[in-house]
Amino acid sequence: MLRVGDAPRVRRLLIGVALALTGLFLLLPLVAIFAQALMSGIDVYWQNLSDAYTLAAIGLTLLVAVITVPVNLIFGVFLAWLVTRFEFPGRRLLQTLIDIPFAVSPVVAGLVYLLLYGRNGWLGGWLDAHDIQIMFAWPGIVLVTLFVTCPFVARELIPLMQAQGSREEEAAVTLGASGWTIFRRVTLPNIRHALLYGVILTNARAVGEFGAVSVVAGAIRGETNTLPLQVEQLYQDYNTVGAFTSASLLALLALLTLAAKAALEWRAARREIVT
Amino acid sequence: MSIHISQIDKTYGYKGHGHTRALEPIDLDIHDGELIGLLGPSGSGKTTLLRIVAGLEQADGGSIHFGERDVTHVHVRDRRIGFVFQHYALFRHMSVFDNVAFGLTAMPRAQRPSSGEIRTRVMQLLEMVRLQDFAERFPAQLSGGQQQRVSLARALALKPDVLLLDEPFGALDAKVRQELRRWLRHLHEELHFTSLFVTHDQEEALELSDRVVVMSNGRVEQIATPDTLYRQPANRFVFEFLGDVNRLEGDIEEEVLTCGNARVAVPGVENGRQELLLRPHEIRLDEQPNARAHLPVSVTAVVPVGAEVRIELEADWLGEPWLATISHADFERLAITRGKRLFAQPSRLHRFDTPRPQTLAPLSVS
Description:
- The complex is a heterodimer.
- By secondary structure, chain A is mainly α.
- Chain A has 14 helices and no strands.
- By secondary structure, chain B is of the alpha+beta class.
- Chain B folds into two domains: 3-241, Rossmann fold; 246-360, CATH 2.40.50.100.
- In chain B, the strands form five sheets. A six-stranded mixed beta sheet of chain B has the order 6-7-8-3-9-10, sandwiched between helices. A five-stranded antiparallel beta sheet of chain B has the order 14-11-12-13-16, with no helix packed on it. A five-stranded antiparallel beta sheet of chain B has the order 15-20-17-18-19.
């Protein structure tokens, strides 16, 4: 029997095509970003980078990530724990609901938040009366980012925790361990790789989210511009080099994320071999 | 520590949706130091009962006492039980040492022994399960039998009043199983804890237990010593579950059962249609029929492995083949080969349709 890959010529052709496509669609744009950003030299690059608005955008983006990641980390662990360790009516429904942020376009998510918290929104009047501004300010950006990124951790954990089952936790409780001890010494070590992976994905998305954020941010330069919004605005201003400078930061973050992910997978694979 | 189970029952699911009656109200008294086997097919409720005794599951009603202590509403972590899981449930990211030490290190700081004391205790336990050289290994680096021994050591670390084992040897191969059984029995005699274990393996239950609790469909069918259980089964279920069974169905007239061209004397049985049961070792084979039994059979398979020879028999008058076990001496005397025609002579027949099971001896002259 001859499989497709068995003929050396076919195999080489397939590998060649795959590599060419990867290069064309994935690698080339990445190289182009850095090429464009550094087009006018490293000095201009630094100058663009130290622009006040860009710095503000970096700051805001980091703020969003710093709030979003821990909140969704805790939320995701709770949700996964609930869904995999307890039997209750509506459990399956809950598991489906977790996926809403994945299923809905981010722009729609942004609009929904606008509808809820905007000046003319359902909660807008009350918020206005108490002088709380959510839309067109950083709290709104954080809220929509939380919404968009909330499934990542739970989605990573649920299949793993389902596969591992609750036997080890049951063993721990028969040995007299308290709930917190069980979580800290049994559950957490077993899920830490998946948890880290979920955090990496959450972080990547929190930093890079455009659609939902652009609806609720209001594009106030130096105030509500996150990095992706800043890229777009600079580009609209025909400041190509500036736009690509900010874009290169995002690309760099993406590369770091990928490196972290690869390192994790490598470590996990090595552990498998050892044990 | 004795265990008193009184009127424990359990239903799973909500009304109308996945509603399963797992346990009918059950009473069970286990004496101090006893080793009790819960035996039954899957779905008989034996694991549910064990988990309720452990506190891993809540009963709908009834009460459980350990000695004088009412533990019905005591949380599992405060029940002072040791639990051994079928698939070991060792903490996969901890070394063997840390696994065994877990119960001690998880104690509140005020009660926790010093790390030196913990070390001594854990090494003692590992020595007891003959794994002292494996303290630094991880569970995945051990064989199934070794993992189950670690799991036992872990369960015994806190000196529990009661040891509960859920199909402890179910996932192991036959040889390791045999060895671990003997070893558990030995350990039980030495340490004198009260234990309750679940199994679906009749041999395991009969070999290991002081008394066996046979369960089916959430009910207790019989509680008895292995010997009584085998010789005086309380009902047909117990009889069929505890070993291979052959069936004989026919019409009875004037104390003779007839079925096609086969007939056998059934002293004391009233007229009518009857189904009688017999064990493989309750069949004798001969080349001639006798006055009391005329049961022509032909040999379809021969397995001469082990202490006895297993022989499969077929006949027109039989619905399903019979299994007979005979001695090697008889096997050679009759020169049995496949296809050989012989006559079966039941030394005993059992009937279970009467209020009390009855055993007939067709070959003895009444």
